Amino acid sequence: MNHTSHAFLTATNAGHPPNYERIKDEYEVSGLGEPQGSASVRTTVINMPREVSVPDHVVWSLFNALFMNFCCLGFIAYAYSVKSRDRKMVGDVTGAQAYASTAKCLNISALVFSILMVVITIIAVVCIVSTGHLDT
């Protein structure tokens, strides 16, 4: 049984765009009518949970892996971020949240340790330079 509509082109004046009209098959229109029987109509409502947004921190982890990779913490955070994204794509929200939490902690650790190393290095260079100028 074919339930498709057919489009026919009706010719109009030469200067105007063509006029399209839809003509339904006869069996499609004739099948409509009131519901049979006097049974009450029952409806079913399904509450679908909204998609839970789980941040996977991939960009932050990639930044830490490339620029602030203190003791490979940025690389490990990137691995956990990818695992979190994989779990999210599969639909395992709990697993995605666990991996994302670990990646977040590793990213914070990598950031703090890298900033401390930069500050310590700057202080050490300033101390060495200032001590060298006093001796001469």
Sequence-ordered SSE layout with sheet pairings:
Layout: E1 6-10, E2 19-23, H1 26-30, H2 58-67, H3 73-90, H4 93-135
Antiparallel strand pairs: 1-2
Helix pairs in contact: 2-3, 3-4
Region (Disordered): 1-20
Main location: membrane
GO biological process, one term: type I interferon-mediated signaling pathway
Protein architecture, described:
Helices cover 56% and strands 7% of the residues. It has helices spanning 26-30, 58-67, 73-90, 93-135, and strands at residues 6-10, 19-23. It is elongated and about 100 Å long. The mean pLDDT is 78.
Defining key terms:
4 helices, 56% helix, 2 strands, mainly alpha, two-stranded antiparallel ribbon
Shape: elongated
**N/C terminus separation:** 101 Å
The secondary structure category is: mainly alpha
Q: Roughly what is the average pLDDT, rounded to an integer?
A: 78
Helical residue percent band: 55-70%
Rg result: 34 Å
- Please list the strands of the largest sheet in the order they lie side by side: 1-2
Oligomer: single chain
Order of helices and strands: EEHHHH
Number of strands: 2
Low-confidence stretches: none
Largest sheet: 2 strands, antiparallel
Quickly count the helices: 4
* Share of residues in strands: 5-15%
Biased composition (Polar residues): 1-13
Pfam families: CD225
Transmembrane segments: 58-80, 110-134
Main location: membrane
Brief sketch in words of this structure:
This protein is mainly alpha-helical. Helix content is 56%, strand content 7%. It has helices at 26-30, 58-67, 73-90, 93-135; strands at 6-10, 19-23.
